[in-house]
């Protein structure tokens, strides 16, 4: 099965491919299949709405199942900013360094106890039969005063949860944290892998597999809020 990911960010493709490959699912971009996707204006006021807009459009344009996501930081001291505008916080879409610079500037001299934030991720998978699945995850953490690590993307270098900056978590560590034994949860993991993991299990179910395993949750329930929505 081919699954289209509605992004030009190859890092996201690599992430999702690593997670879904055990199910025999090939993650492809529009360029991989020679498809031109329309430009979708992110007019939603929530991460879920924006993810669904992109997923449905990608599915309609390509004719195959499509996954899209929207994610960002919500900083308490800034009344939830940058929120759904995280990717274009500096005024230029996708300029990670400029976005980080602006956020650090806006939090200059703000004490540690007031730098609380959450990394919110929403993903939507749209299918040709007009069924959609939306998953949301929230990871509580804090904004650091400077960059740490070169891993990940977006705000990862300045977001810390479980005592470690996301920018210092390697791919191997991330994969290891997805592994669970019986009902025990392996914790301390990036939130964007949390919703991908849940989505993987939903795709597993939709593909008709008899075994349904929902044990691979990468964040403890004490730190993570999550919800799953299905619609026809």
Explain the overall architecture.
By secondary structure, the chain is an alpha+beta fold. The protein has five helices and eight strands, in the order E-H-E-H-E-H-E-E-E-E-H-H-E. The protein has helices at residues 10-20, 47-62, 96-106, 171-177, 191-206; strands at residues 2-5, 26-28, 66-75, 116-126, 132-143, 159-161, 164-165, 224-231. Strands 1, 2, 3, 4, 5, 6, 7 and 8 form an eight-stranded mixed beta sheet that branches. Helix 1 links the parallel strand 1 and strand 2 (26-28). Helix 1 crosses helix 5. It is globular. It starts with a strand and ends with a strand. Residues 174-194 and 205-224 have low confidence and may be disordered.
């Amino acid at each position: 099965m081919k699954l289209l990911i509605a992004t030009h960010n190859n890092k996201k493709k690599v992430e999702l491919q690593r997670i879904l490959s055990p199910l025999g699912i090939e993650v492809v971009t529009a360029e991989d299949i020679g498809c031109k996707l329309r430009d979708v204006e992110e007019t939603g006021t929530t991460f879920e709405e924006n993810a669904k807009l992109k997923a449905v459009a990608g599915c309609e344009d390509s004719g195959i199942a499509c996954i899209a996501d929207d994610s960002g930081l919500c900083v308490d001291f800034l009344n939830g900013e940058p929120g759904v505008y995280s990717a274009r916080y500096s005024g230029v879409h996708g300029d990670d360094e400029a976005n980080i610079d602006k956020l650090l500037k806006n939090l200059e001299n703000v004490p540690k106890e007031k730098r609380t934030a959450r990394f919110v991720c929403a993903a939507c998978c749209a299918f040709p039969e007009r069924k959609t699945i939306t998953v949301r995850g929230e990871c509580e953490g804090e904004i650091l005063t400077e960059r740490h690590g070169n891993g990940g993307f977006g705000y990862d270098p300045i977001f810390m949860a479980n005592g470690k900056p996301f920018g210092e978590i390697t791919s191997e560590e991330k994969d290891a944290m997805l592994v669970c034994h019986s009902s025990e949860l392996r914790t301390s993991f990036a939130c964007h892998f949390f919703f991908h993991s849940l989505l993987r299990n939903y795709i597993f179910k939709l593909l008709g597999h008899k075994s349904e395993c929902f044990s691979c949750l990468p964040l403890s329930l004490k730190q993570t809020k999550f919800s799953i929505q299905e619609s026809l």
